[in-house]
């Protein structure tokens, strides 16, 4: 590409900051934070620290890499904690975002359910009102039985013809 052409886009400048995918970084931080919250992690850390302290306390002085005040162990644990805290916070923020989205979905679903329930309530009220105006089978049956009783009562009151 020639540098003097105006119909061609310029080459992008190189950035000093490396490019990364925040979503994949977030997923990785969640996996790390999830692992750090397990008993397995605590057992591994306890084992590593126990071996570290025993090795540097019992091994011959020529093989010890971190003598008694265990400064390197303290540095290593501080470094691990300084990386763990932001990763855990990032994982919590991502979980809070997911919870917020789920809450909004649940709220919308609840609103739809309430609207459906109100609609069905109105429909049932309308059906009850319409049924109140229509003569039902039981109503007709009871009216006919009452009419038959009245006829029987009339027949009983009239004298029989000779």
UniProtKB/TrEMBL annotation:
Instruction: State whether keyword Membrane applies.
Output: yes
What is this protein identified as? DUF1003 domain-containing protein
State the UniProt keywords alphabetically. Answer: Membrane, Transmembrane, Transmembrane helix
Which InterPro entries does the UniProt record give? DUF1003 (IPR010406)
Look up the domain of life of the source.
Answer: Bacteria
Please name the source species. Actinocorallia longicatena
Segments crossing the lipid bilayer: 41-58, 70-90
